Amino acid sequence: MKSYDNSKDALDAIYRQFGADILLGKLNSYFADFAPSVNSNVKKLVYSVYESGASKTLRAGLNGSQEDKERAVKLAVRNLTDCFFEQDMAEIIIFEFTSALGWELTNPAPAPDKKNELVQTAALASAAKEVKPKSAPVIIKPMSPPNNKLVEMIRVSKVYDGGVRAVNNINLIVGSKELVVILGPSGSGKSTLLKMIAGHESITEGELKIDGEKYNTVKPADRNVSYISQDYNNAAKREARMPLIGALQGKARLDKGELAVDMSVYDNMAYELQKKKVPKAEIDKRINEVSRLLDIEKFLDRKIYNLSGGQRCRVAMGRAIIRNSKVSVYDDILANLDPVVRRNMRAEFSDIHLRLNATIIFATSDYTEAMSMATKIVVLKDGQIQQIESPLYIYNYPVNKFVAGFMGNPRMNFLVVNVRGEGGSITLEEGSFKIKSDASHSAYLKNYIGKKIYFGIRADDLDLCEDNTANCITLKITVIEPLGSDINLWLTTDSQSLIARTYVDPSFKVGDTVNFIPNMNKARYFDLDTEQSILPL
């Protein structure tokens, strides 16, 4: 059992050993396998900070998104030393951590004031509980292939004049009720891929199947696929300035998955059903149901140019939903919305997917959008699939350097390092620092001894430390980027740059040196030439 003279030393040791796992706010999951009293007191830890007002952001954060909660709790735990250290509650909180970890305080604090019911409850529970070993880390498993294939692309390519391959050798399966996000930078082939599924772009090579039937040459109107173009909103803005052109081109726009500015919301939504000669009563029924779902009932008589960006987006979604298609395809429809509206629409989109049990294929260049919405992500680059997996799996186990850098904000840090073998362990030498790899990674790195590789570490996996801590890296601050509850520090070694995300500290100054320790269990490594992952997936 580890022993510490006082709470401050114990707390510092917790920071050093478990930095990212605890400081990212994953307290409840970390203690999930301990006795219920421990789990309960960890919650008391969080809410004691909450009630004290130690962190101004915590109240709002605990009612926000998962990311907001993690950031808020991270800041609250970071503030424990400053805000609680002189109070009895601080000693109880630290005692909860150390006891759960199987550590011992040789000079524990005196018993707290019995008038404080929360502290008294925590102290009694701490004394009574059984100490158990640390719970195992969460294991993220790869996805299994879907049992119910709805869309299948087999070696599909699109070749334009001059031999330009916009999409190359695509093999993709979309299962029923999945929300598959095609993620990639501009020019990666996302729109071309979606248009081929919807029938608005011909297939040069390969085979497209929908519900088991070949669809290569089936016309768009006969595919039972709803398609909303990324230009749905741009066309509306353009035609609002030129009403005559809008009147002439409105229906042509609708056929291409856009909105018709000269037509009402009702007419935009009813267009596809009217083409199929669906009875008026049925059209009215569907429009009323979908407009209630999307909260656009009061806009049914308005022209598109009188709507806001978010309202137009809902109308576009309504056009897809109302057809009851087997597959709905959305081509980056949130891209041009204001940030706040875009965030709200992401949540609404995910909610509607779950409520309708719809099969959706959605393209975006925004990794946050993909992570928050998708059941499965397809990462695309230069017309080729890089990786297909669940959001968390891709984030934690990227197949190559491109995927690792694209999945994250800020992007993963990549440092060129030399791999050395020392006494049975693997060290990474950058020139201005030398650190040991995680023991579980050594077997995969030994083949690179004497070679250079990319060492990848995310900004959230760098934690402040003392300069005498093992694996500590000394870095120089070049830019300070405040984000509210935390900050990004732009840093440099003697020759390479990186970013760390950490808590707000007014003492940080550009030009100062700071010390960070990387969470080496979260480190990723990539071949210098192929840029493929060295660690297995």
- Judging from the principal axes of the Cα atoms, what is the shape? elongated
Number of helices: 19
| Number of strand segments | 22
State the distance separating the first and last CA atoms: 35 Å
Structural class: alpha+beta
CATH classification class of the domain at 401-527: Mainly Beta
Question: Mind telling me the CATH superfamily name of the domain at 401-527?
Answer: Nucleic acid-binding proteins
Fraction of residues in H or I helices: 25-40%
Q: Under CATH, the topology of the domain at 401-527 is which?
A: OB fold (Dihydrolipoamide Acetyltransferase, E2P)
**Mean pLDDT over the residues:** 77
If strands are numbered along the chain, what order do they take across the biggest sheet? 8-9-10-5-11-12
Largest sheet: 6 strands, mixed
CATH architecture label name of the domain at 401-527:
Beta Barrel
